[in-house]
Specification:
It is built from 9 helices and 8 strands. It is an alpha/beta fold and about 325 residues long. It is globular and about 45 Å long.
Length: about 325
């Protein structure tokens, strides 16, 4: 019997079969490639949403919220809450004995007045003779350790800087009029440290000194840094994963080039305009939040925290005038 296909037809059949097989292989490869790309895209989207990017910044430019650390939940506060105005309350801690030292407006971190660590910082100032006023700048809506990081940008947008500024102004007026202080310093931690940097520019006519603990300099422009117009101590941590050490070093170089940087916390350089005086101090071997939320069972961290607060008092004693 004659074959069903001639050799020519056989070759054509083989070619068609090979072609169909090749197209199938290409289709499978294309599907796998598309799937991988889709997965990568989803991963990138999820990383952005959860903050797991190299820069660890949210879409609105705010820093990734820090770990809570030791928030001192069982802390017994020594001060009292008071009403500043119809929208704002504040925690006030005053020295037990008569003191000629001034008042300090304290900026809390993102965890607000709900944690003991921020009140403890105010009480620490009061024990050393300063009247400390800690306003609730988040108006009862702070970030919490259980909050979803993916919602951080939305939460932060609910606290616009303009409203924060208005509440700060109201607090200063309360300190000036109700507490009768003319000379005021500002101290802040984490988010509050950033507020100190901004405040030394905006509030230069009303404050005498500022101390910023691990403020987020990485989200600030050189103009923001150079706009400071009060003696400002900038405290940072070497192993800070929220505020990169490189950003701190850039800040230090910027201030040095502008002839604004002291050689130590107690240096008195007569060649620097007093309103432009700054000092940057980086504590080795510690992490973000070490001074007010560090592990109190770790002697190394506690030693660094004690030194940082000692530097704060040195700065305040030098630049915040005593009461008459």
């Amino acid at each position: 019997m004659a074959p069903s296909c001639s050799l020519k037809r056989l070759a054509v059949c083989v070619a068609i079969c090979v072609g169909i097989f090749a197209i199938g292989i290409i289709g499978v490869c294309f599907y796998v490639w598309e799937t991988n790309n889709d997965c990568d895209a989803v991963s990138r989207t999820n990383a952005t949403a959860t903050g797991n990017t190299e820069s660890d910044t949210a879409s609105n430019g705010m820093e990734r919220p820090c770990e809570a650390g030791d928030v001192r939940e069982e802390y017994t506060a020594a001060g009292n809450m008071t009403t500043v105005n119809s929208n704002l309350t504040a925690y006030v801690s005053q020295p037990r004995e008569m003191s000629c030292k001034g008042a300090v407006l304290v900026f809390h971190d993102i965890f607000g007045l709900d944690i003991g660590a921020n009140r403890a910082a105010a009480d620490e100032l009061a024990r050393n003779g300063y009247t400390a006023v800690l306003p609730d700048l988040f108006r009862g809506n702070p970030w919490t350790s259980s909050s979803d990081w993916r919602q951080f940008g939305i939460w932060m947008s609910g606290h616009p800087q303009e409203r924060i500024n208005n509440d700060v102004d109201a607090t200063l007026e309360f300190i000036e009029q109700s507490l009768d202080y003319d000379d005021i310093g500002i101290v802040g931690f984490c988010w509050g440290g950033t507020q100190v940097i901004l405040g030394t520019a905006r509030l230069a006519a009303r404050i005498k000194a500022g101390i910023s603990f691990y403020g987020s300099v990485q989200v600030m422009t050189p103009q923001d840094i150079l706009a400071m117009r009060a003696p400002t101590l900038l405290v940072h941590a070497e192993n800070d994963t929220v505020v990169p050490l490189a950003a701190v070093q850039n800040q230090e170089i910027l201030l040095q080039d502008a002839n604004r940087l002291l050689r130590s916390v107690d240096d008195n350089d007569a060649n620097i305009d007093p309103s432009l005086v700054t000092f940057v101090k980086v504590f080795e071997g510690v992490e973000h939040g070490f001074a007010h939320r560090g592990d109190r069972n770790d002697p190394f961290i506690m030693q660094a925290a004690a030194e940082a607060f000692s530097d704060m008092y040195t700065w305040l004693d030098k630049y915040l005038p005593k009461r008459n």
